[in-house]
Amino acid sequence: MSTTRLLLLGVVRIFQPAYGYQLRRELITWEVQHWANINPGSIYTGLRTLAKHGFLEELEEGAGRKPGRTSYKLTADGESEYFTLLRKALWSVDGFRPDQMQAALSFLWSLRRDEVLAALESRIVQLEQRMKAEPFSERQIVEDPSTPDHVVEMFRISTARDKGELEWTRAFHTRVTEGAYSFAGEPPTWQPAPGNFPYWNVIPDPPD
């Protein structure tokens, strides 16, 4: 749920005010149905739920426009919730929920570079600690006579993911340190397609 909420709040923040259909179409281009396990049909329900809880404001069409169309923008609570979820996903390592970091990557540009670097350094330490502990956890599984022998492979695939993420995180930290990409408070290094330019040209600063 937190990944879905972050994705919905984040995409509204980019395109606000925006219609549900527009937001759904955008998220489908990100293929969230594959890596975030989001059913495209549930995106409308998610938007309405966020509005019900005060994180989004629903804006009805004005006179002369098509009736029944609702657009969305973040409320102050929605802006706060967005950054809370983004920072939680970025700073926390969960080997069983890789979708959380995938979602965070979609919105890292809305944080400042120094925070991203600090969070990546924290992730490296957490992953290194997990790697140190994993041999002992595996030994416990192997030596437990009540555990089927094939269960250790379920543990080993998780270990392999941790190794891969640790290698990637170190390399990504190096790239960000060397100036790759743009973050909040910096000139954009990527230019969007002309139709999306108004949405992507300005990277809003995070709240203090």
Describe the fold and architecture.
The protein has 208 residues and is mainly alpha-helical. Helices cover 61% and strands 6% of the residues. A 3-stranded antiparallel β-sheet has the order 1-3-2. The protein is globular, with a radius of gyration of 20 Å. The mean pLDDT is 84.
Task: Chart the SSEs and their pairings.
Layout: H1 2-15, E1 18-19, H2 20-29, H3 32-35, H4 43-52, E2 56-60, E3 70-74, H5 76-91, H6 98-107, H7 113-143, H8 151-177, H9 197-200
Antiparallel strand pairs: 1-3, 2-3
Helix pairs in contact: 1-4, 1-5, 1-6, 5-6, 7-8
* Separate helix tally: 9
Rg value? 20 Å
Number of strands: 3
CA(first)-CA(last) distance: 26 Å
The assigned structural class equals mainly alpha
Q: Share of helix among residues?
A: 55-70%
Mean pLDDT: 84
Which spans of ≥5 residues are poorly predicted at pLDDT below 50?
none
Shape: globular
Strand order of the largest sheet: 1-3-2
Write the H/E string, N to C. Answer: HEHHHEEHHHHH
Biggest beta-sheet profile: 3 strands, antiparallel
| Strand proportion | 5-15%
Index terms:
single chain, 208 residues, mainly alpha, three-stranded antiparallel sheet, 9 helices, 61% helix, globular
Structure at a glance:
The chain has helices at 2-15, 20-29, 32-35, 43-52, 76-91, 98-107, 113-143, 151-177, 197-200; strands at residues 18-19, 56-60, 70-74. The protein has 208 residues and is mainly alpha-helical.
